[in-house]
């Protein structure tokens, strides 16, 4: 039965969640998820539209059966005006005692969302990017762009990192905040020209990245466009690439890139990790990320373990 309910804020989540611990645990969880006899439970995200506020609430429960760990994330996403300083994603995670049903902890979910999403994209790149990848481009300059910059530069060695964003001032702010040199680009075409690895982390609802600009063999981790009628990538890119996803079920229900282009999903990342589908590193690849409750559960469990060690 429960101990006391604890509240774990953003700073503590930041302090306790490190990519070096998170990435291997996510790899295990993604692999488990993609096994035909999986025991972990994660329904497709339930969404409540908030039309008045141009957003939605997403509910993302997950049960890690092997670890008897139950939680749910509640995440609101808003399509903010381009000049707005308000965050577009706000998330909270509740840890629930699976036996008794009481809440054990309430945790900030913003850092969890930023880090686990970037960590999963880094796993996709580890598996799918060209063997000799030198140029890394990020489209977008918000929260996901920064977490992706952090984990990609921590995990890989690129010769050049580029950023493009809607507003040049935002790209410049991003470049100043980054820990290493970042080239600010004027256009998407300039930013992705010759790039080996591209992350799209924008709030775009129409394509911003066009296949004709993407170098054959490049790897694209597409993080935005999380509704069935939203896009960041055009049909040319979706048809020329081998498409990998986090969850086939999630992609079929929520990904505008997959649904509207009619592209076939080649594999889940977990299938590649399990060795049941190949990593086609020599081809142009797209990893379409939508986010999964089990990813939040893995991150929240790590945070809670660390929190208990420190209290
Ligand atoms: N796949 C996943 O697991 C997750 C995906 N997301 C998605 O990632 C994307 C980025 O999220 P955050 O970084 O938190 O948002 P943010 O609001 O911090 O940053 C968004 C960026 O997109 C740019 N932008 C806005 N409208 C645009 C447009 N029409 N065309 C091009 N760029 C535009 C902004 O200038 C900003 O640089 C969102 O689409 C969000 O839904 C967020 C969390 C998890
Ligand atoms: O997985 C998540 O968390 C989110 N995915 C899409 C946009 C909102 C947050």
From TrEMBL:
InterPro entries: NAD(P)-bd_dom_sf, ODC_Mu_crystall, ODC_N. SUPFAM superfamilies: NAD(P)-binding Rossmann-fold domains. One of its GO terms (biological process) is thyroid hormone metabolic process. It catalyses: L-proline + NAD(+) = 1-pyrroline-2-carboxylate + NADH + H(+); L-pipecolate + NADP(+) = Delta(1)-piperideine-2-carboxylate + NADPH + H(+); Delta(2)-thiazoline-2-carboxylate + NADPH + 2 H(+) = L-thiazolidine-2-carboxylate + NADP(+); (3R)-1,4-thiomorpholine-3-carboxylate + NADP(+) = 3,4-dehydrothiomorpholine-3-carboxylate + NADPH + 2 H(+). It comes from the Eukaryota. One of its GO terms (molecular function) is thyroid hormone binding. Its EC number is 1.5.1.1, 1.5.1.25. One of its GO terms (cellular component) is cytoplasm. It is an enzyme of class 1 (oxidoreductase). Belongs to the ornithine cyclodeaminase/mu-crystallin family. Homodimer. Binds the thyroid hormone triiodothyronine (T3); T3 binding inhibits enzymatic activity. This is Ketimine reductase mu-crystallin. The gene is CRYM.
């Amino acid at each position: 039965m429960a101990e006391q309910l604890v509240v774990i804020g953003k700073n503590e989540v930041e302090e306790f969640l490190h990519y070096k611990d998170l990435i291997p645990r996510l790899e295990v969880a993604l692999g488990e998820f993609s096994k035909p006899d999986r025991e972990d439970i994660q329904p497709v995200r339930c969404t409540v539209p908030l039309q008045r506020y141009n957003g939605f609430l997403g509910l993302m429960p997950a049960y890690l059966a092997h670890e008897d760990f139950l939680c749910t994330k509640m995440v609101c996403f808003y399509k903010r005006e381009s000049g707005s300083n308000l965050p577009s994603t706000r998330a909270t995670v509740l840890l629930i005692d699976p036996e008794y049903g009481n809440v054990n902890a309430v945790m900030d979910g913003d850092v969890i969302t930023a880090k686990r999403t970037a960590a999963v994209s880094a796993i996709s790149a580890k598996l799918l990017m060209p063997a000799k990848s030198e140029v890394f481009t990020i489209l977008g300059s918000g929260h996901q762009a920064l977490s992706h910059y952090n984990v990609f530069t921590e995990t890989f060695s690129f010769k050049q990192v580029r950023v493009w964003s809607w507003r040049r001032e935002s790209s410049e702010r991003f470049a100043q905040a980054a820990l290493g040199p970042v080239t600010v680009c004027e256009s998407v075409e300039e930013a992705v020209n010759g790039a080996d690895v591209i992350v799209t982390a924008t709030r775009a609802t129409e394509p911003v990245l066009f296949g004709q600009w993407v170098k054959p063999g490049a790897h694209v981790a597409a993080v935005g466009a999380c509704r069935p009628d939203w896009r960041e990538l055009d049909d040319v890119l979706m048809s020329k690439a081998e498409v990998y996803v986090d969850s086939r079920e999630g992609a079929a229900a929520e990904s505008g890139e997959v649904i509207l282009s009619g592209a076939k999903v080649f594999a889940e990342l977990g299938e590649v990790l399990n060795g049941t589908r190949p990593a086609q590193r020599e081809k142009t690849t797209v990893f379409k990320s939508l986010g999964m409750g089990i990813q939040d559960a893995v991150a929240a469990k790590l945070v809670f373990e660390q929190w208990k060690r420190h209290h």
